[in-house]
Amino acid sequence: MSKLPHIGTSIFTVMSQMANEHQAINLSQGFPNFPVDERLTAITAKLAYENVHQYTPMAGHSGLLDKITRLTLASYNRNLNPVTDMVVTAGATEAIFATIQALVNKNEEVIILDPSYDCYEAPILLSNALPVRVALNDDYTPNWEAIATRMNAKTRMLIINNPHNPTGKIWSEADFIQLEKLLDLYPDVILLSDEVYEYITYEQPHISVNTRIKLRDKSVIISSFGKSLHITGWKIGYAIAPEYLMREIKKVHQFLVFSVNSLSQVAISEYLDIVDFNEIATMYRQKRDYFRELMAKTPFELLPCEGSYFQVASYASFSKQNDIDFSKELITRYGVATIPISTFYADGKDLKLVRFCFAKDNNTLEQATLRLQKVAF
């Protein structure tokens, strides 16, 4: 008997497979296709000949933990203890899985704000707990009235994602004030803050839970070097939490992977001495602006993109197809793969929206938008 009977192959895998079958340009799955920084590859090549190929300590390579401590202080003015307050994980997905498995118990409830990334629900179900899906407003701001209505004595955790995947929305100061007021009413609720796109933001500044004194002592904050440094295949992330929560997370982490790829940890540790996250944000802002300029020649209507490397677009003005069929036809007829937004909702809410990934080289973006200019349904 399946423990996850209603969970099948993810929409990201489905669309990427279809893209391969039809030789479509893949703007669906969220991975860059441009080269990694040559300084990072040089560091990695050098380290390949050094003694960095055995297990690191379970919680992470000490040098990388120290660098994360410095990065968090520089970015958010938060002082951390690298021994007690963090763990390096096999990507953000493992950090999320370990956190939920460690901290959520049978019959407890976890609130997920839809549209939501698909890795949240499975570890909740595997904990024999109940995922409670609450829709964001149609502009992707939090619906505080709806969230408050679903909070109760069984609520163990609230998951937020900022900057938001799939929409690129960034939470405001007012949102965090509302969140703090709500959690004051439920002091035992743990906040899981998925911030993997924290360094890919544009006009709106990213507000991290690391900066919220009222929240951080009850929060687990998830980050991703894979996203921040466009090395998604390295699968290196980390979690930050107060010691009483981190102690439990590490117990699960050690039996999932024990420790994370040693060469990658040491390479990132050295790279953090020279990389400028502001330059990365500038690079992605230029890609966003260029993609939006190219998309202006297509029939799609673009929604705001405040962070992440995703652009949501509406096709409601020229097609009434549901977004899954529309996305499949976009691959088969026009040769461009995207992700339908309804798949991020528990109820399949269809607003005639699709998500494009613009973390691609300029030639890929140009060729894709030339095809999209021909779209006519």
From TrEMBL:
UniProtKB keywords: Aminotransferase, Pyridoxal phosphate, Transferase
Protein name, UniProt field: Aminotransferase class I/II-fold pyridoxal phosphate-dependent enzyme
Keyword presence, Cytoplasm: no
Coiled coil stretches, renumbered: none
TM segment ranges: none
GO molecular function, one term: pyridoxal phosphate binding
Family: Belongs to the class-I pyridoxal-phosphate-dependent aminotransferase family.
Residue ranges of every copy of the Aminotransferase class I/classII large domain listed in the record: 24-368
